[in-house]
Each structure stands twice: as structure tokens, then as C-alpha cells.
Amino acid sequence: MAGVRVPGGRSPALSQRRAGRVPRRKRTARAIPAGGAAAWPGAARPRKVNALPPRPRARTARHTKTKARMDRTPQNGPLSLYVEFSREDWAALRGATPLTLSEADLAALRSADEYVSMEEVEHVYLPLSRLLNLYVAAAQQLFRATDTFLGSPAAKVPYIIGIAGSVSSGKSTTARILQALLARWPDHPRVDLVTTDGFLYPNRVLEARGIMNRKGFPESYDVRRLVRFLADVKSGQAEVAAPVYSHLTYDIVPGETQTVRRPDILIVEGLGVLQTGAAERPAPRVFVSDFFDFSLYIEASEADLERWYLQRFERLRRTAFRDPTSFFHNFAAMSDEEATAFGHSVWTTINLVNLRENVAPTRDRARLILEKGEGHRVQGVRLRKL
Q1: What is the CATH number for 292?
Q2: CA-to-CA distance for 29 and 301, rounded, in angstroms?
Q3: Which of 14, 77, 222, 281 is packed most tightly, with the most Cβ within 10 A?
């Protein structure tokens, strides 16, 4: 065979070429993929080969087509962390996943400020629940493989999902809908939901530290307690208690806890669940997100977020704030103009600052991003591929 060296002698092909019977093959340059070695860090450097440059006209055409293609789908380029889906493409990934929620179920899960239609559940949340079901099954198989390797008895390890996003982005509604859908899959019927509001420091501590107006910022959370809670859940402890927060009194409820008992899945929802520590202090060695098997970020424009926040503030002013025990009871007597001005001030000086400085920068740490538009309607989905 040509090119096969005979032990102790020359290659037959080489002998034939020297005899003048076979013409010498011409060397040609190997084509290098677009982006060269930069597309694959650590790849071997290609040998330099003298080759004619491509014709300018062909190169320009290819460059123009590539640039136009990347302009249309900037998140799907070779160096992008995410695969981007339109609403329609994402909805098609539902497959044969059955709709297990009724209109009555959905009505109980909706927030008063956020109308979620059954179409939204079918097009957005059913495909997401299918993806998560596959991820949970894969994680459980990996846990079993590890137990087999270690020769240890199989232990139940809860699958933990983190949901992050701005104030008024709809995190709570998303968490409740996912909890209901995931609990209806046969392999993981027990799904618990915990919010990080319960891990805020009590008001007396915030006031003593002079950071009452920084509630919701990283320094207002008892991160050590939250990390300890997640570590205990992940290690399979029979019962783990989480503190409870009241939005009526705007404070931690003394002596009240939520008990988590070895769930199949735990959903943790909160502003800063993807944060990696405050910049002004030494970063902790363990982050909240280290315990997440999957993370989700809800994204919306600042204009939409402010509008949703003001709508919520106005609704609460006409309902919950009228309760004499409410922390915000005095706001119920405000005129509409005063209430709007106050709500805008709170959004601009507190919530927007926190969003820009602490929440939005964590977006690209999420495994999946839901992109919302007008009316909390999800317009696109980005799924991390790395």
C-alpha cells in the first residue's frame, strides 16, 4: 500500500517516485477554521506553509456573510456562552410534556401584579420543566455512580435550583409555577420553595448598623446562615429550618421557621443568589450559588421593571398598607401624586442602584435566562452551553 513503510527498507511509494514512475504530490496548505487558534485555546500551533492568499473578492464575500449572520444571532456565535431561542423555538421544545396545571391551579399561583396566561405556561414553563426533569434525572444518576465508586450507601441528595432577578421581575411567580410543575413529574414529587428574604438581618440589626435603607443589598443578608442552611440541605439532613420573613411587618418573624425535610428538589429564590461576595470585603470561600445544580435569571428592561414596581406599590397602598399592623401603613394616606413620587424615589435611589451594582452583573452566571417584555411576557430564552 502506498505510504506504508516496509520494515528495514524504503516506502514503496518513495522507491517508485525515485524510479520516475510516480509523480511527486504537490504540497497544499491546510485550511484553518475561522478564528484560527484563538477559537481553541491551548491548541497546537499550525505549521507555517507557503500558500497563496485567497482571492480578495471571495474573502470579502465570506466575511460579509459571516458578519451578517453574527449580527442576527449575537448569542449563538462560536465564542458565546449561550444558545439563544425565540419564544416560538423554545415552545417547540416542550415535546410531549403534558399540561398538568388547571386554570384554578394557575390562578392560585399567580401574583396579583403579574398575569400569567395558560399559553405562557405551555410555551415557556412546560419546556423548562421538561429540561429540568432531564437535568434532575442526570444528576441523580451521577450521584448513584459516585456512591457506587465510593462503596457508600446511596444517599438522597436534593437537587437545588436558584432563581435570581431584580425586584418586581416576577421571581416569586416563576418559582411557584416551577414548583407546581416539577412536583407533578413522577420522579420527584416533593419540591420545596424557600426565599432568601428570610435570611435578611432583623430590622433591629440593620438599624444598629445604619443600613436600614440598604435592605436587599448584599450586606443586609446573613449569608453565613444561608450558606449553612444550604449545606445542611445538600448533605441530606432530615430536617433543616429556615427563618421566615413577613412583607406585612417588613421584618423577620421572631420564632417562626420553615422546615425543609429532604425534598427531591429545593427552589431558592432571591435577589442576590448568584452573587459572589461584596467587593469591599474579602470574598467568602463558599458562595450561595456553589450549592446550585441549576440557576435561572429573569431579565427585563429597567423601564419595565420600574413600571412593574410602581404598579405593585400602588396596589399595596390600596390593600395591604391599609392594615394598621403594616410597616407601610402611613403610606396608605398618601395622595396618588405623593405615592407615585415616593415610589419613583425608592426605585431610583435603592432598587435601581442595587440592580445595577449587584443583581444585573450576576446574570451571566445563570444557566438559563428568561427575557421578559411588556406584561411579563417571556420573549426569548438563553441556555448556557458551557
Answers
A1: 3.40.50.300
A2: 49
A3: 222
Here the contacts of 336-343 (C-beta below 8 Å, separation 24 or greater) are 339/313, 339/314, 340/310, 340/314, 343/309, 343/310, 343/313, 343/314
Residue 181 lies in a domain: yes
Reported confidence tier of residue 283, pLDDT bands at 50, 70, 90: low
pLDDT, tens digit, 9 for 90 and up, residues 133-185: 999 999 988 988 888 898 888 778 899 999 999 999 999 999 999 999 999 99
Query: Which tens digits make up the pLDDT trace of 362-373?
Result: 999 999 999 999
What confidence tens digit (pLDDT) does each residue in 224-261 have? 999 999 999 999 999 999 999 999 999 999 999 999 99
Q: How far is CA 8 from CA 11, 12, 97, 258, 311, in A?
A: 10, 12, 66, 80, 87
d(CA 386, CA 379): 23
- For residue 197, the enclosing domain spans 80-384
What share of the chain in percent tops pLDDT 90?
A: 59
Distance (Å, whole) CA 323 – CA 317: 10
| In a domain? residue 102 | yes
Q: How many domains does the chain have?
A: 1
Grid coordinates representing 111 are 401574583
Q: Residue 318 CA to chain centroid, in angstroms?
A: 34
| Cα 165 from Cα 355, distance rounded (Å) | 8
Helix-strand-coil split of the chain, %, nearest 5: 45, 15, 35
Taking the CB of residue 355, how many other CB atoms lie within 10 A of it?
22
- Cell numbers 429545593 correspond to what residue? 266
- The string of pLDDT tens digits covering residues 58-95 is 433 333 333 333 333 445 656 788 999 999 999 999 99
Q: Is residue 303 part of a domain?
A: yes
Return d(Cα 208, Cα 233) in angstroms, integer: 31
CA dihedral 319→321→324→325, nearest 10 degrees, is 110
Q: C-alpha cell of 177?
A: 409555577
> Is 24 part of any domain?
no
